[in-house]
Amino acid sequence: MGNSALKAHLETAQKTGVFQLTGKGLTEFPEDLQKLTSNLRTIDLSNNKIELLPPLIGKFSFLKSLVLNNNKLTALPEELCKLKKLETLHLNGNHLRQLPAAFGQLSALKTLSLSGNQLRTVPTQLCGLRHLDVVDLSKNQIQNVPDSVGELQAIELNLNQNQISQISVQISHCPRLKVLRLEENCLELSMLPQSILSDSQISLLAVEGNLFEIKKLRELEGYDKYMERFTATKKKFA
């Protein structure tokens, strides 16, 4: 991609606050973007070949949305955690194994998408995020859901297509969790905490494609309580 093309994109971004450059084979984050640290509200560099996010990402203090789907990121810089206004972070289809230690400082974050990475556990850093609505951790290598998950503030947690065989009973304490997706994992029915059914806020539990038949779920104690929440929610959206 020529410099003149990049220049045109930068000029547009200066006016609109949006920099979008997808599927252009970029191997690195465009350094020239640092001229726009106070302008940019949205950066979308999806479908490129970016391997590193430079520390200068921390300077985009007004950034609300950062989209880097389908790149080659293996790690994220700590500086990313300085983005106090960031509400949306999409990092699907990268090679991430963990999140920066200070990730919990992204205090405005509402939507986090990490589908198709190499995470092995639900990152504990997510539990400090008070405004989180949707967390997508599908298509990773997560094997168990730890006790810390009980402090997660999310409304929807997507854990589809992992290798989960154990879930902490603490998940039923999540204060706002309404939707829990666990499709295509390695769960035995006995490993599904019954409190999810009998004693949680969860009104949509998706567990197809595990090591038990769905109809067996209906025999569990608390299933009728779960169905009450499920039906009430359905009526609300009908």
Helix content: 10-25%
Q: How many helices in DSSP terms?
A: 4
CATH topology of the largest domain: Leucine-rich repeat, LRR (right-handed beta-alpha superhelix)
Largest sheet entry: 9 strands, parallel
Protein name: Leucine-rich repeat-containing protein 57
Organism: Chauna torquata
Keywords: Leucine-rich repeat, Repeat
InterPro entries: Leu-rich_rpt, Leu-rich_rpt_typical-subtyp, LRR_dom_sf, LRR_domain-containing
Report on this structure.
This protein has 238 residues and is α/β, with parallel strands linked by helices. The protein folds into 2 domains: 1-94 and 106-114, Ribonuclease Inhibitor (Leucine-rich repeat, LRR (right-handed beta-alpha superhelix), Alpha-Beta Horseshoe); 119-237, Leucine-rich repeat, LRR (right-handed beta-alpha superhelix) (Alpha-Beta Horseshoe). The protein is 16% helix and 13% strand. It has 4 helices and 11 strands. The strands form 2 sheets. Strands 1-2-3-4-5-6-8-10-11 form a 9-stranded parallel sheet. Strands 7-9 form a two-stranded parallel sheet. Helix 2 (195-198) links the parallel strand 10 and strand 11. The longest helix has 15 residues, at 223-237. The chain is elongated.
